[in-house]
């Protein structure tokens, strides 16, 4: 088990472009979570999945943000029409059945820079 | 409103000195409580966690934390810091699926 993997590690994009990040959770983990961390702040919850179902998405920052987990394994987070304020670290975590937040394992994150 | 306060943005301690990082929270029910550490370019690593039982919790790397319900606090301590402890430390609280985080305390170690 290699832990939670996120790809890419770094992404530089021009304002207005769309970006997509990928998260591969620990294989037996059924829950997957996305957070955003801006400079000097703690992470901020965005959304989470249980298997392929997105159970909470009201915290996604705007309708430019969307996430999928089509087969209950990896997940993607897409940001459309990026803005400079989207520059941040995007973190993924997963947890196993019945663990919830008590069993979080975080990936190393994807750092997005919008220029 | 649910919130976590880490009052110290930066703390500087000498190597070998003791450390205490403060965390206060506001939450409707008794939450799960966590301390994480983040080194530059690294992901978040769990130091320790608490939900119930003994209010003094032991974690990895020689860290411990004490839950004080009356003060809504969960302070992190270490008796003797090492240069490798220099990092950013985050307190977090939550229940079910979501964690609410403090803004972090950056620990600087003086040689």
Characterise this structure.
- The complex is a heterodimer of chains A (115) and B (111).
- Chain A is mainly β and 115 residues long.
- Helices cover 0% and strands 48% of the residues of chain A.
- Chain A has strands at 5-7, 10-13, 19-24, 31-37, 44-50, 53-56, 65-68, 75-79, 88-95, 105-106, 110-114.
- In chain A, strand 4 and strand 5 (44-50) form a beta hairpin.
- Chain B has no helices and 12 strands.
- In chain B, the strands form 3 sheets. In chain B, strands 2, 5, 6, 10, 11 and 12 form a 6-stranded mixed β-sheet that branches. A 4-stranded antiparallel β-sheet of chain B has the order 3-9-8-7, with no helix packed on it. In chain B, strands 1-4 form a two-stranded antiparallel ribbon.
- The mean pLDDT of chain B is 94.
- The chains are: A mainly beta (115), B mainly beta (111).
- At the A-B interface, strand 4 and strand 5 of A face strand 5, strand 6, strand 10 and strand 11 of B.
SSE map:
The complex is a heterodimer of chains A (115) and B (111).
Chain A: E1 5-7, E2 10-13, E3 19-24, E4 31-37, E5 44-50, E6 53-56, E7 65-68, E8 75-79, E9 88-95, E10 105-106, E11 110-114
Parallel strand pairs in A: 2-11
Antiparallel strand pairs in A: 1-3, 3-8, 4-5, 4-9, 5-6, 7-8, 9-10, 9-11
Chain B: E1 3-5, E2 10-14, E3 19-21, E4 24-26, E5 32-38, E6 44-50, E7 56-58, E8 64-68, E9 73-78, E10 87-95, E11 98-101, E12 105-110
Parallel strand pairs in B: 2-12
Antiparallel strand pairs in B: 1-4, 3-9, 5-6, 5-10, 7-8, 8-9, 10-11, 10-12
């Amino acid at each position: 088990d290699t832990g939670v993997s996120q790809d890419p590690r770094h992404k530089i994009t021009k304002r207005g472009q769309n970006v997509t990040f990928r998260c591969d959770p620990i294989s037996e983990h059924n829950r997957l979570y996305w957070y955003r961390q801006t400079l000097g702040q703690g992470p901020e919850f965005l959304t989470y999945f249980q298997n392929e179902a997105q159970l909470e998405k009201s915290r996604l920052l705007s309708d430019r943000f969307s996430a999928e987990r089509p087969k209950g394994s990896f997940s993607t987070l897409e940001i459309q029409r990026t803005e400079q304020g989207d520059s941040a670290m995007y973190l993924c975590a997963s947890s196993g059945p019945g663990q919830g937040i008590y069993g979080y394992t975080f990936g190393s994150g994807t750092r997005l820079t919008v220029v | 409103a649910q919130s976590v306060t880490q009052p110290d943005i930066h703390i500087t301690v000498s190597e070998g000195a003791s450390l205490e990082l403060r965390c206060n929270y506001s939450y409707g029910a008794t939450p799960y409580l966590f301390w994480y550490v983040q080194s530059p370019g690294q992901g978040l690593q769990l130091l320790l966690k608490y939900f119930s039982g003994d209010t003094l919790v032991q974690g990895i790397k020689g860290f411990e934390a004490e839950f004080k319900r009356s003060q809504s606090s969960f302070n992190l301590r270490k008796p003797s810091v090492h240069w490798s402890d220099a990092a950013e430390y985050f307190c977090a609280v939550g229940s079910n699926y979501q964690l609410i985080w403090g803004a972090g305390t950056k620990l600087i170690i003086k040689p």
